[in-house]
Each structure stands twice: as structure tokens, then as C-alpha cells.
Specification:
Number of strands: 17
Number of helices: 17
Largest sheet: 8 strands, mixed
Radius of gyration: 20 Å
Structural class: alpha/beta
Distance between the termini: 24 Å
Helix content: 25-40%
Strand order of the largest sheet: 8-7-9-10-14-15-6-16
Strand content: 15-25%
């Protein structure tokens, strides 16, 4: 089962088109396919489906050149490292790695408002204040609905503050990427690991990306729940009428913070993080997230995550505390940026032992190993599998052990048998 992982036999190189990607459950909803289509006469548009995910819809003829680009850059169908791109040693579990630290914003309000200490937010504030970038592209609450996401353009600290905090719902931050690449100025991009992987793959064929996007930042991701997950969460919180919600956040205002909904009459509903994410939202993940080998942002310059405190047994604790982020630099450019943010006083950091990350992020430390068995289940049931290259999946599978591999294989087989589509 391991022989085809990371290799590219001829039959596995068959082109992926949009419909094939969706039907086989490979779409991550990033919007890149729509983002690189001709804006004057788009062949592909993004929409929210009845199942609550963001998906592309083909509305016109897809030119052969566009089809080839989609096949090459779609992060749902491809995630591949080209080792000559790396400036860092490749850690088999944690990917390209120059240094790992714990960090948090020195802005106490921003630290509290963010989901995990404001590590990314502090770096963005430095980038904007220093003039290194003209703006930031990041996901924030939609201006049209407090329970939906939208792409935000941040130009200063207040914008970054408003966009801070986890958004556990679909987003398509690459939906208009060509338009932003055509604009004057340079920008930093913040997204899920798959979003950053897609943008990095686009950079291989579009020189504008490296010219206009000097920094790509990511946050570790355990998967994208559908908007149906948000509705289920609100219902469990006690909200009877979703349309009555005037403000909503999944986390933040503390660490880990509470899922919080406020109604027009001032009524407020809250739920703790362990319940909201651990028992509700993560039951609504799209299939592509269940076979994702990169929840850790391997293609970013800098990636951040919750730097959970742990109990004596090494298990993460979710008690309310002052937030702190794991901050991993993956490129020389990212490391230099982090050093400048520390020198400028927007970010505080302290050392962290690499071995501690397995306790702070136990799921991410095992994730690559799980993927091998799940891809094996796809192979056995005849589904098209994504192309994953250079991610040390086989090595991680051996590290996970036969019992865990068998459990993941059997569980995925149960989900796949008899399905007509995985989307």
C-alpha cells in the first residue's frame, strides 16, 4: 500500500478537472480555480452549496490552458514539495523547519482578542506598520452575516484586530487572487495550510506571486466544518433563530475563549471550546480534510498554532489562560521577519523544545501517518486519490503503527463503500 505514496505512476497522473476533484471529495473550497479564471468571462465561480461548503461551479467552457493550470495548482488534488525550494531542514513530522518558539502579541487587547495569543496578528501589525507590505489578505467575519466568512483586506492594526480569531467555517480566500495580484502594492497572505499550498503552487507558474506576495502565513488546521456545523453549534448553544444573531465568534476574547453568540436584544449565549470544537464542529468536516497530509502549514513562511499548556501526563489543557502561540519559521525570509517583529516589540517569544509540540498538538503530530491508511481505503474502493509528493507519509505511517493504520483503513472503508460522490 505504501509503494504508490509520493510516486507518480502514469495512471495516477491523469488530469484532474473541477468535476473530478469535487466528485472524489478532493475539493478544499479554497477558490483558486475560480481565482485564476478569466475575470472578464469567468468559466468557474464559487458558491455555497446546500451542504454548507464552498465549491466551484463550472458556468462556461474551461479553456485547455486553464484546465492544465488547475490540474497543476489545485491543493485539493496536489500537495507536493520541490526540495530545491527549501531553505530549511525537513523534519519528517513538522515539515520544513528553521526554528520553533512560543510567542504572543505585546498588545494585550490584541492578544486577548485573537484565538491563541495573537502570534500571526502581531506579525501582521509589524508588516503593516513597517511598510513591508501595503495590505494583508485574510479571512474575517462577513459584513453580510455574523455567521459567515469573507475575505478581508487589512491595512492597519485595527483591521487586523477585527479579523483576529478563528473562523471554523468555509472560506475561499483565493477566489479573487488574480485581481489582487493585478493591483498595485505588495501584500501578505494569511490562510489555511491548503490555501497557502495552493498559492505556493501557483507561484511556480505565475511569477507575479513571488513579486507581489513576499510573505505567506498559515495557522495549523484540523479541518473545515461546513456552515451546517455552525448551525448545529448555535442550536446546541440555545439559539432558536439563527437570523436573530447580530454578533458571533467561534473563539477568542480569552484563550481558548468561548463560542459566543449575541442577539439583537442583547441576549448572549456561550459554549466552551472543548465542547464547541471537540463535540460539535469537528463532526461536520469536509472529506478532503480527513485525508489532508498538511494541517501544519508546511508551505508557509511562518505558521502558528495553539501552544497549549499540558498536564502531568502530557495532555493539552483547555483552561482559560493568557494566550500563547506556537510559532514555527519555515523559510529564511520568515525567520528574518520574526526577528524584526521581536526587535520592533510587537511580538514576544520564548524557546520551546521540539519534542513538546507533540503534546501541545497531538493530533497534528499523528496526522500524516493516518493519511496513508485513508488513501489506501480510497484506492481499494476505486476513488481518485490526490497526488502527495515529498511529505514523508510512509515514514509517518510506520511511526504510527499497524494497529492505528488498520483502524484508519477500516474506518475510511466504512465511509466510502456505496457512496456515489464524496463531496
Amino acid at each position: 500500500m505504501l509503494l504508490w505514496i509520493g510516486s507518480s505512476p502514469k495512471w495516477q497522473r491523469a488530469m484532474f478537472d473541477v468535476e473530478t476533484i469535487k466528485r472524489n471529495g478532493l475539493c478544499a473550497g479554497c477558490g483558486l480555480c475560480a481565482g485564476i479564471a478569466d475575470r472578464s468571462d469567468p468559466a468557474i465561480v464559487m458558491e455555497t452549496t446546500d451542504t454548507g461548503y464552498r465549491r466551484p461551479r463550472v458556468v462556461g467552457p474551461v479553456a485547455p490552458a486553464l484546465a492544465q493550470q488547475i490540474d497543476a495548482v489545485c491543493p485539493g488534488a496536489n500537495i507536493r514539495h520541490e526540495r530545491d525550494e527549501h531553505e530549511a531542514e525537513y523534519h519528517p513530522v513538522w515539515g520544513p523547519l528553521i526554528a520553533a518558539r512560543l510567542g504572543w502579541s505585546t498588545d494585550t487587547e490584541l492578544r486577548r482578542n485573537a484565538s491563541s495569543g495573537g502570534g500571526i496578528s502581531a506579525i501582521l501589525v509589524h508588516l503593516l506598520a513597517s511598510g513591508e507590505v501595503d495590505f494583508v489578505l485574510q479571512t474575517a467575519v462577513s459584513p453580510d452575516s455574523p455567521v459567515r466568512n469573507a475575505l478581508a483586506v487589512s491595512t492597519g492594526r485595527d483591521d487586523v484586530f477585527q479579523a483576529a480569531g478563528s473562523r471554523y467555517a468555509p472560506s475561499s480566500p483565493l477566489e479573487d487572487i488574480a485581481a489582487h495580484l493585478d493591483k498595485p502594492g505588495r501584500f501578505a497572505f494569511v490562510g489555511k495550510p491548503c490555501d497557502v499550498a495552493g498559492l505556493r503552487q501557483l507561484a511556480r507558474i505565475d511569477p507575479r506571486v513571488n513579486e507581489k506576495v513576499p510573505y505567506m502565513l498559515a495557522f495549523m488546521c484540523a479541518g473545515v466544518p461546513s456552515y451546517a456545523g455552525t448551525s448545529a453549534l448555535l442550536k446546541e448553544m440555545g439559539v432558536q433563530d439563527e437570523s436573530a444573531v447580530t454578533a458571533f465568534r467561534y473563539r477568542g476574547d480569552g484563550w481558548p475563549g468561548f463560542a459566543t453568540a449575541r442577539l439583537a436584544d442583547g441576549t448572549t449565549f456561550k459554549m466552551d471550546y472543548d465542547t464547541s470544537w471537540g463535540h460539535i464542529l469537528n463532526r461536520h468536516l469536509q472529506f478532503r480534510c480527513k485525508i489532508c497530509p498538511d494541517g501544519i502549514g508546511e508551505f508557509a513562511d511562518i505558521v502558528c498554532a495553539d501552544g497549549w499548556h499540558c498536564d502531568e501526563s502530557g495532555n493539552p489543557l483547555f483552561d482559560e489562560q493568557d494566550g500563547r502561540s506556537i510559532v514555527i519559521t519555515r523559510t529564511a525570509r520568515g525567520e528574518a521577519l520574526l526577528q524584526r517583529a521581536v526587535t520592533a516589540g510587537t511580538l514576544l517569544t520564548e524557546p520551546v523544545a521540539l519534542g513538546s509540540l507533540e503534546h501541545m498538538q497531538p493530533f497534528q503530530s499523528r496526522r500524516k501517518g493516518m493519511v496513508v491508511a485513508r488513501l489506501g481505503a480510497m484506492m481499494l474502493t476505486g476513488w481518485r486519490r490526490p497526488r502527495y509528493v515529498g511529505l514523508e507519509l510512509a515514514r509517518n505511517a510506520r511511526r504510527l503503527g499497524l494497529k492505528a493504520l488498520a483502524r484508519n483503513l477500516a474506518g475510511t472503508l466504512r465511509r466510502l463503500v456505496g457512496k456515489e460522490t464524496l463531496d
